[in-house]
Amino acid sequence: MRVWRPQAFLAFLSVARAQPAPYPNNSYPIVNATNPGGLDNAISPPFYPSPWIDGSGGWDDAYQRAKQFVSQLTLLEKVNLTTGTGWMSDACVGNVGSIPRLGFPGLCLQDSPLGIRFADYVSAFPAGGTIAASWDRGEFYRRGYQIGAEMREKGIDVMLGPVVGPLGRNPKGGRNWEGFSPDPVLSGIAVAQSVKGIQDAGVIACTKHYIANEQEHFRSPGNFEDQGFVDALSSNIDDKTMHELYLWPFADAVRAGTGAIMCSYNKINNSQGCQNSYIQNYLLKGELGFQGFILSDWDAQHSGVASTLAGLDMTMPGDTDFNSGLSFWGPNLTLSIINGTVPQWRLDDAAVRIMAAYYYTNRDKAAVPVNFNSWSTDTYGYEHMHGQAGYTLINEHVDVRQEHGMSIRLAAARSTVLLKNTGVLPLTGFEKFTAVFGDDATENPLGPNGCPDHGCDNGTLGMGWGSGTAWFPYLVTPLEAIKNEVLRNNRVVQSVTNNWAYSQITALAKQATVSIVFVNADSGEGYITVDGNAGDRRNLTFWQDGDELIRTVTASSNNTIVVIHSVGPVVIEEYKNNPNVTAIVWAGLPGEQSGNSIADVLYGRINPGGKTPFTWGKQASDFGPDLIYDPTNGALSPQDNFNEGVFIDYRYFDKNNATPTYEFGFGLSYTTFEYSDLKISKSSAGPYTPTTGQTIAAPTLGNHSTDPAQYQWPANFTYVRNYIYPYLNSTDLAEASKDPQYGVEVELPEGSTDGSPQPRIAAGGAPGGNPQLWDVLFTATATVTNTGKIAGEEIPQLYLSLGGPSDPKVVLRNFDRLSIQPGQSATFTADITRRDVSNWDPATQNWVISNYPKTVYVGGSSRNLPLSASLDLGGY
Ligand SMILES: *[C@@H]1O[C@H](CO)[C@@H](O)[C@H](O)[C@H]1NC(C)=O
Ligand SMILES: *[C@@H]1O[C@H](CO)[C@@H](O)[C@H](O)[C@H]1NC(C)=O
Ligand SMILES: *[C@@H]1O[C@H](CO)[C@@H](O)[C@H](O)[C@H]1NC(C)=O
Ligand SMILES: *[C@@H]1O[C@H](CO)[C@@H](O)[C@H](O)[C@H]1NC(C)=O
Ligand SMILES: *[C@@H]1O[C@H](CO)[C@@H](O)[C@H](O)[C@H]1NC(C)=O
Ligand SMILES: *[C@@H]1O[C@H](CO)[C@@H](O)[C@H](O)[C@H]1NC(C)=O
Ligand SMILES: *[C@@H]1O[C@H](CO)[C@@H](O)[C@H](O)[C@H]1NC(C)=O
Ligand SMILES: *[C@@H]1O[C@H](CO)[C@@H](O)[C@H](O)[C@H]1NC(C)=O
Ligand SMILES: *[C@@H]1O[C@H](CO)[C@@H](O)[C@H](O)[C@H]1NC(C)=O
Ligand SMILES: *[C@@H]1O[C@H](CO)[C@@H](O)[C@H](O)[C@H]1NC(C)=O
Questions:
Q1: What is the pLDDT of residues 112-136, one digit of tens each?
Q2: Ligand 10 — pocket residues by CB below 6 A?
Q3: Which residues, by range, are in coiled-coil regions (predicted)?
Q4: Which CATH code, of 3.90.79.10, 2.170.190.11, 2.60.40.10, 3.40.50.300, is assigned to 675-686+774-870?
């Protein structure tokens, strides 16, 4: 019997419960609507061994090259590839060790999903949740490609993005804006196009955070404000909801070839994300056939052996706690291999996965040396900032922006959503007296990058806060851009940007012929608290007394345009109904060209075509279960039961007959569109066959000595303080481990070291899952006519009713963005795949087409679906 450390497996599982025995025939006890979970059922069944890469789905060439590379490596070199060098030890936010013998410089991992964090001369792109409003595959791809190209030129190997977790279960979730949309199909298409763009630029995309990381409060164990120690929150999700909602966009990312996936801080069904064998081994590497590598969120690794066997491939930033100088891997990984606890094939697989992603994205051809340093803007400084070692040239200040500012301006304008317009828009620029109101119209007095990680809400809101941010090269403010418009025509424009100067606001509003009010709502990552919001929003109203600002202006101005910069929905029913509010525009988090983008829309150079990628509810409670803000379980894991299942956002509103202010998919144009002539054609794809057979055996690449003397520090090695190396400090293994529990005998999870061929998973078979899930079963076409007087862009949307009693009323399945001249028509064409018409069946662990009647709907929003047709599923 192999041994392992119980501490490792149970580390931070303060709900000290042993993992249950494997269940026969996949009969997992799951949390679901009839069995709503709580502590007893919210368990994550063990799944071992960790599946090894097989090169399927276009990865074979990369796989063969990776195997060849890793075959040359020593054990210490393999450990170097998998282990981060420690927080602030090297130039990037994450770095793995080098392989000097082969001239391999290590890997640089860098934030963020919307541009490069901690670097100068970079672009600040629209946030994920904003570009989602473009519903445009081309914009998703171009944004990904351009961010990727900037990363490549700074020397970054792995971009820490895109985001589809959080998905956006509740709009208060602090990091929702980093991802795309609470709809899994819109998110899935956006993430796939983003991954392709990033990786075509020659950089590895790291899709994150896997999975159910739906709130900031309690995401990690620790002391939380004044609430004392609280263990990490457990997101308890049933199998059907997992597949039909949260896992869905990850499947698209894997199918698109994402080279990396980041496991999340939170627990899933009471097992830590980064050592959860069910979600990593079974779902991701097994069922979804993921070929790349799993890396931990920063300090989300909580064990050595247990996380290794549960499928983790890279630890970030490498140390147990920031700057502890200790690691669950590094020397401990070396030890766990030479003492026989972890089979060598598992380490080989981790190394091959990392290098396969490297070759898959052509990093060998695209790489340039890292030419910036995250921890300083100085030209010269310490290469190893934390250890204060290696004083040298650290910032070459390479301007990597190219002409991306022009794309950013256009992308943000095309992502702007016109929610209300009584006819005042577009403005002409000849308005006699334009008044601009709001702190959100102007620049942060502290500078566009004046608050660390954008952790404040001063001036116009161009992005949220936290690690998912980039430094602005400049920030064009709305006030600057509007002044330019108006002054061109020699008209009058004035502003009040102090939100509390009520008498001046009233005085100006009375004079104005048009008033434009800028308001915002911010959120971010939980390590920064802004105005009492610890990442997650406390409410869904405006910040900086924005509501009072709007009320003050509208009391004196019958032509008030409200422009919203926000991370998600805000409660605006009052303004929808106020006749003095003549227009409402949502501009999201537009990035560096904010003012130009909004001016393009307000003054009609761009006819707005964006559609809201989330629902605007009349009140916060309309969105369903709230976030957990207070510990529910003492110091133990707060239990967050996702009892609403697949019913989030519009699906929840539909189910509860709640009328939203503006529904998912809604957005106006300066022209109008009509829908007609829905036709469905059926393909000859035939029935679905589950994947069968067995995998190959796990390859072991080379061998290793078990002699501790081979793994000691090289003679005369100059080491950096607190830096994580692979070497052992002693030939006494227990001493080298520095772990009082070293060598304590415990049973390893059953099957965890077994490298023999394994049964293939029925719903699997290739990256993304069983390839037949993407068979096109039907193609729908419909005619969209521009019935107005100017050219415009419309986003026809295809929804399905899957017909069952536990299915949402409708679910989005496809869309396109069409540019149509006035009086002209265009044809909307949308495929419907097997996955689109299927439900997840927990009993057979596969996708099935239910016998309920299925209906296709086409129209301009989730509640404006004039066309419908039924689907004939015979033969599938
Ligand atoms: C819900 O979970 C219980 C307990 O695991 C199981 O018996 C039941 O079949 C599940 N129901 C559905 C709809 O999956
Ligand atoms: C591991 O990486 C470190 C840091 O880059 C490097 O100094 C060391 O030589 C590497 N060790 C091996 C065995 O390649
Ligand atoms: C090895 O890991 C244990 C925790 O599992 C940790 O306490 C110890 O400090 C680590 N050792 C080294 C040398 O990093
Ligand atoms: C092997 O090494 C790992 C990592 O240090 C340690 O946790 C484990 O207890 C060791 N097992 C044995 C049998 O020595
Ligand atoms: C920045 O905004 C905060 C609220 O988020 C406010 O308290 C502070 O006074 C503002 N500072 C400046 C310089 O505008
Ligand atoms: C909602 O939160 C914002 C930001 O903290 C705050 O400015 C506002 O006053 C809050 N709204 C209400 C109604 O409490
Ligand atoms: C609308 O604006 C006018 C001033 O133009 C004002 O007299 C009226 O009270 C306002 N109405 C509302 C509902 O605020
Ligand atoms: C606002 O009020 C003025 C003065 O009564 C009127 O001329 C104008 O048409 C009104 N504007 C709107 C948009 O209702
Ligand atoms: C290590 O450094 C010492 C002192 O400079 C030198 O005498 C010795 O030869 C070196 N050893 C090796 C293996 O390079
Ligand atoms: C290992 O030895 C080096 C060099 O003496 C020392 O700096 C480091 O702190 C030691 N590491 C551990 C984990 O004991």
A1: 999 999 999 999 999 999 999 999 9
A2: 325-326, 719, 729, 738
A3: none
A4: 2.60.40.10
